[in-house]
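Question: what's this shape?

___
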Amino acid sequence: MRQADIYIQDRFCGILQEDEDGFHFRYDSVYLSREDALPLSPTMPLSAQPYEKEMIFPVFDGLIPEGWLLDIASASWKIDPRDRMALLMACCRDCIGDIGVKPHDHE
C-alpha cells in the first residue's frame, strides 16, 4: 500500500491511499473541524466518509504532467507513465494551485 499526505493551501487535509482495490481518500478529522476547510474539488465535498475509486481520482490525475513534461518526469525518475500514484508523489509536491502532495513517510 502506498500513501500520500494531501495539502490544501499548505494545510494537511487528508491521506490518499493506493492498494490492490484501488484508491481511497479520507479527509482528516481535524481539517474537517476547521471553519475555513475547503474541499479538494466539487466532486469530493467535505465529508467524514472515505472516497473510494478503482482509478485515481480526477482531481489528483489532473495534477500529473502531460505530454513532453510527463516524458521528462518519467525518464528522470524512472517511473512508468501508467503508475499514476508514483508520478503524483514525485511531481506534485509543490504544484501550481492549492493542492500539494507528499509521500506519507516524509520527514
User: Anything to note?
Assistant: The first strand starts at residue 2 and ends at 8. DSSP finds four helices and five strands in the chain.
